[in-house]
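Lab manual, section 2.4: Encoding a predicted structure.

Procedure: take the sequence of the chain (609 residues), apply the prediction step described in section 2.3, and record the output as C-alpha cells. A sample record is shown.
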Amino acid sequence: MHTMTSNSELTMIPLNLLHTSPLNARKTSTASVEELAASILSAKRVIQNLVVVPAKAGKKARFGVVAGGRRLAALSMLAKAEAIPSDWPIPCQIVSKDEAVELSLSENIHREAMHPADEFTGWAGLVDSGMSIEDVAARHGTTPETVRKRLTLARVSPQVMALYRGGELQLDQVMAFTLTDDHAAQEAVLANDADPSVWAIRRALTSDAVRGSDPRAVFVGEDAYIEAGGHIRRDMFGADVFFEDGALLNRLVREQLDATAEPLRSSTAWVDVHAEALTHQTRGQYCAAPTYRADPDAETASALAALDSKREKALAILRKIEDAPASVEPDADDAAWTAASDRVESIEDEIAAVHARLEVIRPEAETLAGVVVALNHDGSVVTLHHLIRASEKGKLRSAPSQSDEPQGWPVDPQSVNTDLSAYLTGIAQEAMAENVPVALRALAYQLALGWIHARWESHGLAISGVDHSQLANSPTLEGSAVEAQRTARHEAWQAALPEEAEALWAWCLAADDATIHALLAYATARSLNGTHCVAQMTPLLAALDVNPAAHWTPRPDYFSRIRKCVTLKILSDHGHADPALAKLKRDQLAEKAAGALAGTGWLPPTLTL
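Recorded output:
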C-alpha cells in the first residue's frame, strides 16, 4: 500500500511557473471559468489552494497542477486580461508524482456538485445582508438580470423549495410557481396535486388575473393601470404580463369608453357601451338601420367633381411613371411611384369620406338608431353607427328600399356561408388537435352536459371519432395549408393505430399518457362541426385563440359569388370608391377586390367572429 508523503504546508508559487499537469484526472470542465475568475478577483485571493507536482522545463523549475485546473484557468484568464500580475503568488501544496494521480482522482470523484437551490438561497442571503444585485452579479461573473431571476426562485414557498431539493419537483415547475409571491397560493396548488404540470401551475396562479394581451389590458395600458393603483405581475422566465386586479381594469375600460361615448349621446337616440372586446354574440344584439344615399347638394356635388378631377390627374401621373422605361436609379423610380400612389389613395379617401356623409338613416329608423362603442380584438376602440337594437327591429315600418345597396348586417349567401364555415371548422379542428388542455376540457364539458342538462347542447362538438363536418364542401379549404396539415396529421394517426378492435385496445393500454392525450385531442377535434353554424363554435374558437385573419386571404372566387353591389360597397368602405369599378365585369371586379383587400385583415361576415 502506498504511503502518503505530501507536504501539508503551503508554498506560494508565482502564477507564471504553473501549468496544467497531464496527471490531472478532470479532462472536461463542468462550470463557468468566467464566474470563477470574477469570484477570485472580487475576493482578491485564491480561497482554496492548488495541488502541484514539480516539473522542470529546461533549466527553469516549474510546477504542474494536478488539482485545481479550473482555478488555474481562471487565474490565467485574469493575468491575460492584466487584471492580476503574471507572477501573482498562488498558495500551492507540493506533492510527489506518485501521489498526484490519487489526489486528483479523490478530489474530482468525491466532489459533490452544488444544488441549484443552494445557489439561489446563497445569492438571496448576500442581497438580504446588504449587497446590491449589481455587486452580486459582478462577483459571480454574471448579469444583474440573472441574479434577479435567481432571487425570484429563492423566494418561493419553503415547501416548494424542499420538494425541489428532494427531486420531487423540477426546475421548470419551480419557475412556474414564481408567477406569484403568495406562498399560500403556491402551497394550495400542491395541496390539490403533489406533482402538478407547469401548465396546471400557471393556470391556477393566474386564474383571477388578466393577461397583458387581453384587449382590455392593451386598451388601458400598464402605465394608466399602475397609476390607478393596479399591480402588474410579470413572468420572470417568459414574456407574459398579468394585470392582477380585474375589477379595477374593467372599471378603467368602462370609464374611458364612457368618455368616448359621451359626445355621441347628443346626436343619436342611444349609445350602448360594451366594456369588452366585441364578439359575434354582441353583434347579434344589433342590426344595421336602413339607410339610403342622399343626393348631394350643390356644394357637395361641386366638391365631389373637384375631387374626381384631382383623382384623374393624379392617376395620369401614376400611369406615366408606370409606363416610363426604368432609369439607372431604381430607388428614385420607386420613391416617385410611391409618392404618386399615395396621392391617389389620399384623394380616394377624401371621396369615400364625402360619400359616407351622404349616407342617411331612413326617417322611420331615426328614433331607433344608435351607436355601439366597444373594444376591438386588438385593444382599439370600435364605434359602430346607424344600428338598431334587435329587440326593437319590429318597430320599423315596412318601406321599400331606395337603394340597391344591401341593408342590415352583411350576410354571406348560403353557398358561401357553407364554404367558409366549413373552412373555419377545419382551422378550428387543427387548432384543437394542437391544444391538448383545451381539447380535454371541451371533451369533459360535452360529456358532463349529458347528465347535467339531459338534453342536446354543444359548442359544436358531436363526441365520436367520426368527422361529420362536411369539409369537402369547402373549395376554400381545398389545397390550403390547413388542409395539408390536417391530412398529414390524419395519415400519421392512421399509420400508428391498429385496424383490428382488439389490437387497438391493446395499443391503447400500452400507450403512455402523452400519446393518449394527443389521440383524445385529435379525436375530439374531429368531432367539431361548425359548418352552417359558426356561432355555436364561438366559445371554443375564443379558448383556442383562433384568428381567421391569420389563415384567410381575400380570393377572387369569393367575390365572384356575392352580389356586385356588395363588392362595390366593401371596396368603398375600405377607401376604394372608384366609379370605374362599377363598369367592370363580375370576374374583373372580383380580381380587383381580392387584390385591393389583400393584407388589410378584412374578413367576410361568416369569418367575422
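Check your result against the sample. Residues 287-395 form one domain.
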